[in-house]
Structure formats: C-alpha cells, structure tokens
Design brief:
With about 350 residues, the protein is α+β, with helices and mostly antiparallel strands. The protein has a single domain, classed as Hypothetical protein YwqG fold, CATH 2.30.320. About 15% of the residues lie in helices and about 20% in strands. It has a six-stranded antiparallel sheet, with no helix packed on it. A six-stranded antiparallel sheet has the order 2-11-3-7-8-9, with no helix packed on it. A two-stranded antiparallel ribbon has the order 4-6. The protein is globular and about 65 Å long. The model has no long low-confidence stretch (mean pLDDT about 90). The chain binds zinc ion (2 copies). One zinc ion (ZN) binds next to loops.
Length: about 350
C-alpha cells in the first residue's frame, strides 16, 4: 500500500517566484497501524537492536508528583479491546488479549515512584535510509533508531526525552528479542502504537514566520494570487497567508527533513550544542496527521479520512501519540555531524 499526497492546489512559486530557491524536500512517513518487524521502517515497532548492546535508559529528572496514567500492559489491553470491538478477532489478537489480560489481572498495586529511577526507553521510530530519502544518515550507517522516555522532564521539557542511535543494519547479526520496557507511561499518548510506514517525498516551503518581511507582504497581496490565477474567494491578507501556511508550505504529520512548523512560538535559533552550526529538522513527531487547516494534505487513499465509529480509530492519529494538547515534538540534527547531540522543540 502507498499513500499519495494530492498535488498542491496552487503552485505557490507562481504567486511568489522568489520562494523557488527555498523549496526543500521532506519525507512524509504516513504511519498506519500494523505489525512491523525489526527489518522494517516503523513507528512504535521492534528495533533492530543487537544482543549485548545496553538498552537506553533515562535517569530523569522525572516529576514524580504527577499521577502516572497507565501501566503499559493495561494500556495495551484497553487499546486492543477497543480495536477489536464489534468484529471478529484474529487468532493472533485472541492470543494477545489473553497474554495482556494475564499480565494485568489480578491488579497489582499501582506503580510507585521508586520504580521510575531509571526508565527503560520505548521505541518511537526506526527509519532505514532505503525507505526515507531525506534521512541524513552519517557515512557507514543506514538506520536511525529513535527511542524515548515516556515521562515529562521538567523543568527542561514537558514532553518525552528522546535518544537517537545511528547504526549499520548489516552489523547487527543477532537481534535482541525481548528489550526491557518501562512498567508505565506518564500519559497514554506517550505509547506509540506499532505502525508500518508508507514514506513519500513532498516539497515544502517555509512557514510564513520564517519569511522576510518583503516575501511575507507579497504573499498577503491579492493581486499576486490573482496574477497566478489563484485568488481564493475571500482574498483578505490574513486569509491568503493562512492558505499559504496550511496548504502550500509545511506538510503536517510525521515526517523527516523539510521545514519546521511554527505557531505556538515564533521561530527560534537552533544552534548545535557541540559546534554552533544551525541545526536542520530531522524528525517531526506529530500528534495529528492533519487538522482543519491542513486537510488538503490528506492522502488520496480513501480510508485514510474516515474515523471508525467502533474501534475509536482516528485516522488523524494513527500512532496514538499525543504531545501536550495536540502539538509536535521536533527533533533537530547537526548538518556538520549528525552524531553531535540532537535537540528537541515542542511546537
Ligand atoms: Zn526520562
Ligand atoms: Zn554540530
């Protein structure tokens, strides 16, 4: 199966030709629930992790005064029950339900704070360079593995903390079968649902907040749009800019590379903590694949758009990841050396 982004409704370089040199490619990941293996690119799937290599853990600090939402097995059991509600279960689902139920019941006492001293991290994404053309894999590597600690990290960040591992898949001879897991996650949106990917390369232009005053002014002028044969019905300047922002500039959803989305804050400088070079967007971990303002990015494949009333499946949130009240967690990488420490930003 593939996912195809419809052509942009307007060729924005006909409205403002000076945008052309600012075009960047991004790879939309188009996650959808499935059963990825360690040999696949995935979100929330098993990692190609060598036996004998220590599994990443996070030592915090964690805010242990907040209630912890979910024991991991309990959360998985509830999700699977919702997914199979109202339909026949497959044998594999039946086995998984039994396994999870026996892990959850009888209910043990809730997880307590000391358990969170050192938290085993969860797989968030595994990306093979062969699948993701915009992946800046360092020489000698062809695989990026992203893990996170499913707790907030105040005061530094009220979101999970990520770890990145670049590796050569050919160097992994024996794969770790049962990696350690945290016993719980702080919020259920911090447990990514296993998803397979249908990567697709698209072209992006900067968020309006990253454009100079001149280009931004040009984008807000109805005559520029009319000259391109593309004046929307109500061509007020804010409308034109929101059309550009929502439909023509930055793709929504999980993606690699491209331009970052801005909104909760103005753009901020992102220097590499090791060498000071301006960092590039690496991975966008998104709550929503689209929203009301970005519906033109919904892929053509029909089933992507309709929520399922029984399962609670929302095609806008195939990974079930939620950052704050519906934001993105953006990971940045140093273009001079992708092994320099990465940075994170919530937008
Ligand atoms: Zn942590
Ligand atoms: Zn650097």
């Amino acid at each position: 199966m593939t996912r195809t982004t419809p052509p942009r409704p307007i060729a924005v370089t006909r409205v403002v030709p000076e945008l052309a040199p600012l075009a960047r490619t991004a790879t939309r990941l188009h996650p959808r629930p499935g059963a990825p293996t360690a040999g696949d690119s995935s979100v929330g799937g098993p990692l190609l992790w060598p036996t004998g290599e220590p599994w990443p853990h996070c030592d915090g600090p964690h805010d242990l005064t907040v209630a912890v939402d979910d024991a991991l097995a309990d959360l998985r059991l509830r999700r699977l029950r919702a997914a199979v509600r109202g339909r026949r279960r497959t044998p594999a689902e039946q086995r998984a339900l039994g396994r999870l139920a026996s892990a959850v019941y009888p209910l043990t006492s809730p997880p307590t704070a000391p358990q969170y001293g050192s938290v085993a991290m969860l797989p968030v994404a595994q990306l093979y360079a062969r699948d993701v053309p915009d992946l800046p894999a360092p020489a000698g590597t062809d695989l990026l593995q992203v893990l996170w600690c499913p707790f907030d990290h105040p005061p530094e960040a009220f979101m999970p903390r990520t770890a990145l591992v670049w590796r050569s898949s050919a160097a992994v001879t024996r794969v770790l079968a049962r990696p350690p897991e945290p016993s719980a996650v702080q919020y259920d949106g911090y447990l990514p649902e296993p998803c397979v990917l249908d990567p697709e390369q698209v072209t992006e232009y900067p968020n309006p907040l990253e454009l100079g005053a001149d280009l931004r002014e040009r984008l807000r002028r109805a005559d520029a749009w009319a000259a391109a044969g593309a004046a929307p019905d109500d061509p007020g300047a804010p409308v034109l800019e929101s059309v550009y922002r929502g439909e023509l500039s930055v793709a929504p959803g999980w993606k690699v590379g491209g331009w970052p989305q801005w909104g909760p804050t103005d753009p901020v400088a992102r220097p590499c903590p090791a060498c000071g070079t301006g960092m590039d967007p690496l991975l966008t971990i998104a709550t929503f694949e689209w929203d009301a303002g970005t519906r033109s990015w919904i892929p053509n494949e029909a089933e992507a758009a309709a929520p399922s009333p029984h399962s609670g499946f929302d095609p806008r949130m195939p990974t079930k990841v939620q950052i704050a009240s519906g934001y993105q967690q953006q990971l940045y990488v140093c273009p001079a050396d992708p092994r320099h420490p990465h940075t994170e930003l919530m937008q």
